[in-house]
Structures are given as structure tokens and as C-alpha cells.
Amino acid sequence: TGSQLREIFDKINNLLSGKSVQSGGRTVSVTQHPQGLDFVHYKLAEKFVNQGEEEVASHHEAAFPIAVVASGIWEIHPRVGELILAHLHKKCPYSVPFYPAFKDGTSLEDYQRMLGYQVKDSKIEQQDNFLKRMSGMIRLYAAIIQLRWPYGNRQGTHPHGLNHGWRWLAQMLNMEPLADVTATLLFDFLEVCGNALMKQYQVQFWKMMLLMREEYFPRIEAITSSGQMGSLMRFKQFLEKCLQQKEIPLPKGSLQPSFWRS
Predict the structure, then answer these.
(1) Which fold has domain 2-261?
(2) Helix (H, G, I), strand (E, B) or coil at 11
(3) 257 DSSP 8-state letter
(4) Contact, 160 vs 78, CB < 8 A?
């Protein structure tokens, strides 16, 4: 509920502001250790990204409550935002977007880790699990850039707003596509923040959607094998429907004004 989210936000904000907070039956404060605040900045940012990777990956609608808290904390405590980006870029290079190239002398395991795969005991995780985690993180990022904490003073602009989403989309379309990954993440990203981008960029946005369908989609198709068609077809249907209706629907689970009264 909205009231629960406010409680969570206030507790995190109080902790970062140096106030004493109850946690695990103890009273804690970042002033108790000279590096206390640095440690909390780092771990909090890491936890936000982990929630994208775990919670949002399993429940897409969870992106919105997590993102609105992350965005609000980022606005008041910019250091947390910088570290959210750092953790996100490390775990999911596609959020930059960046496709790491294989360099001589790099072991295959290390390279798989650079691509975002989890490697345990020389075993690389299954492709569907990998894509699910990457989707969760991209969805969280797409939610953060469009949401603001509704109780802030809102004097300035969003600390990492929709212009970053526009840039991400443009850069993705300037890169050679990767089978499976590109179609999946473009779909995730547009499903979450396509509506917000459409309202902000209007004609320019629809030009980009046309470019995706006419020029970029065939390039993804050309490198996609028959076993990887699922993500491609889902992306294609989404593009066609949006272009046909000249509308991108609000994402499922987006926070309506009534949510904050709950």
C-alpha cells in the first residue's frame, strides 16, 4: 500500500540522514562508524539492483513500488543514485547499453561473467534464467527514469529522467543486435516506459518506433535461430499493435493516484 511504501521510504531516508533507526531489534545510525554512511550508500544501492534482478524478474509489477522509492532516495541522496547505476551496469551491461567484446587472454568463464551470466563451479546459468534476470533489471531501470517520489519538494528535475531512456533506446538501435537479448530487452523497456516516452517525445518517438519495425527488426531477425523466436515474435507483435493503434498502453502495475491513498 501507499502508506507502507511511505514508511519504508522514511526509514531509509532517516538512516541516510544520520538519524537513529530501528533495525533487527537494534537501534542503528550511520554516525556510529566513520565509514558508516559510505557502507550504507553502497549496500543500499546494491539491494535496489538485487530487487530488480530477483523481485522484478519474477513479478514484473514490483518494478513500480521499488522504483519510486529508489528514485525518491536518489533525488535526496545523489550518491546512492550513482551507486545504483554502478551496480546495475556491472550486473547488466545492457543497461549502459554495452555488449562486452571478447579479448585475447580472457577466460571463457570471465567473459561469460562480463556478459552478465552467473557462473558457479564452472557451470554457466541457463539462458532463460539469465534473460529473466536481465529483464528484471532493465524493467526496474525503465521504471526509475519515469517515476518521482510524490512527497518530495520537486523543485529540480528528475535526477535521472526520461532523457536517459531516450538515449538508451537510441544507443541500442545504433548497436549490432544480439540474438535473444536485444529483442527481449527492447520489449521489456518499451512495455514499462514506452507510454511515458510517447507522451514526452511524441512525433520523434513514433519515428523511432517505425525505424525499429522497418529497419532494426529485420536485423534482429537475420541473426535469430528458430529456437530463439519466442522473444522476437513477442517484440514484433508489441511493435505492430502499438503502431497500428498509435498508442502504447500504460504498463500493468503502474502506480495510480488512488495507490497513494491506500
Answers:
(1) 1.25.40
(2) helix
(3) G
(4) no
Of 237, 240, 142, 245, nearest to 197 (Cα)? 142
Q: Cα separations (Å) of 81 from 143, 145, 146, 218?
A: 14, 11, 14, 36
> Do the Cβ atoms of 131 and 177 come closer than 8 Å?
no
Task: Give the Cα separation of 23 and 7 in Å (integer).
Answer: 13
Burial of 223 (0-12, 13-18, 19+ CB in 10 A): middle
Nearest residue to 137 via CA among 234, 230, 41, 60: 60
C-alpha angle 9-252-6 in degrees, rounded to nearest 5: 15
| b/e map 225-242, b = 16+ CB within 10 Å | eeebeebbeebbebbeeb
SS3 for 51? helix
| Per-residue pLDDT tens digits for 208-244 | 999 999 999 999 999 999 888 999 999 999 999 999 9
User: Cα(18)–Cα(20) distance, rounded to whole angstroms?
Assistant: 7
Query: What are the pLDDT digits (tens) for 161-218?
Result: 999 999 999 999 999 999 999 999 999 999 999 999 999 999 999 999 999 999 999 9
User: Rounded CA gap, 109 and 67, in Å?
Assistant: 32
DSSP state of 228: G
Cell of 231: 522473444
